[in-house]
Amino acid sequence: MAQTYDVIVVGSGPGGYPAAIRASQLGLKVAIVEKELLGGICLNWGCIPTKALLKSAQVFEYIKHAKDYGINVGESSADFGGVIKRSRGVADSMSKGVAFLMKKNKIDVIMGTGKVKGVKTVEVTDKDGKKTDYTAGKGVVIATGARARELPNIKIDGTKVIEYRKAMSLETQPKSLLVVGSGAIGMEFAYVYATMGTKVTVVEFLPNLVPVEDEDISKEIAKQYKKLGVDTYVNSSVEKVDTSGNGCKVTVKTPDGEKSFEVDVVLSAAGIVSNIENIGLEEAGIKTDKGKISVNEWYETNVPGFYAIGDCTPGPALAHVATAEGIICAEKIAGHKTEALDYGNIPGCTYCQPEIASVGFTEKKAKEAGYDIKVGKFPFKASGKATAAGATDGFVKVIFDAKYGEFLGAHMIGTNVTEMIAEVVVARKLETTAHEIMRSIHPHPTMSEALKGATEAAYGEAIDL
């Protein structure tokens, strides 16, 4: 006889475990199914350990430029193995933290591979191959996440052609690396490896680096990566990777013709694909579209009692989006009145140096939407705090509707801007206008003053420009 819960969550990543916790907080009996490590990809192989790598790279960069701050240090070098070890330690600590949260919230953890079947039922196969059925009285939440996309002409072998998981656990540092794709994953690894001394080349198929960002951001990061020594190619595609020799011979089609590169390792960072195969969707009759599970605004699938959240659904593949979806989904299952997620107010962050953060309309998208706009920009070289910190690269750009002062979007590139973007998210949530931003006191000296300065610039009231 199957064991019964109110809610069963399949997957313990940044969508799954918050959904389980929120459901438990609302008085439901909850189990979570995980086939590998608690915390999923984000905590173990994504968001968290990559930030540990990025911090190590940043510290090394500080040391190399210590003289700029009046500090004399001896000869320094990056201990690649030590950097990797620290990153894995951080990931392990966070995974243990999720285990603690499961225990604290009285959530049963079922280790094994989950497969949906029947009516609100999950079949779990453990490491020994034993199958056990579990039923959910109120609902099953599918939160199986995603994995690296493998391009047809770039076969990942885990040695010479790798994806992000291997990129953060290589045994030795490559002398040269070619990164395919300039989204957040590609740009973050490009920064880490380039800072530690690897010769890095980035190839992007679309016309701009970080193609989802405002074009001014793309231009600025291209300039900064050139200073870092990273070669970048846009409007370009990897046609062939020959791994028959000691390294990789890569053929790249560029606007200037074909180019050949010989590198130690190729990192494929060309997006992700949802983990929806072999989890019982077809047998259960759950609809999918373009490789994603189809859901409504409350994350209900077409089959009653089955829900789906996170990277296996059509929304943005971001950890904080999955968390928000998981909480809303749990509240809906519990019968609470909840608010649907506003996908037009989702912040995006890239944690290279300088950092990139944005939310809302780009300038181009705002014009395409028919808005008459006011645009302001404040460079960090005009910021007292940035100058004192030796972090004058980058700027804050804001976009407002000229008629009503509606805050349409913000785009930032610079040190610590990923910590600043939440102010804009909250401001837009509260329908804050440009005038209210200008009249809100920002502490001095701070990097956050740049947001106020950019807003003043949009309205011709800039004090420090």
UniProtKB/TrEMBL annotation:
InterPro entries: Class-I_Pyr_Nuc-Dis_Oxidored, FAD/NAD-bd_sf, FAD/NAD-binding_dom, FAD/NAD-linked_Rdtase_dimer_sf, Lipoamide_DH, Pyr_nuc-diS_OxRdtase, Pyr_nucl-diS_OxRdtase_dimer, Pyr_OxRdtase_I_AS. The lineage of its organism: Bacteria, Pseudomonadati, Bacteroidota, Cytophagia, Cytophagales. It comes from Dyadobacter subterraneus. Residues 346-453 form the Pyridine nucleotide-disulphide oxidoreductase dimerisation domain. One of its GO terms (molecular function) is dihydrolipoyl dehydrogenase (NADH) activity. Keywords: Cytoplasm, Disulfide bond, FAD, Flavoprotein, NAD, Oxidoreductase, Redox-active center. This is Dihydrolipoyl dehydrogenase. Binds 1 FAD per subunit. Its EC number is 1.8.1.4.
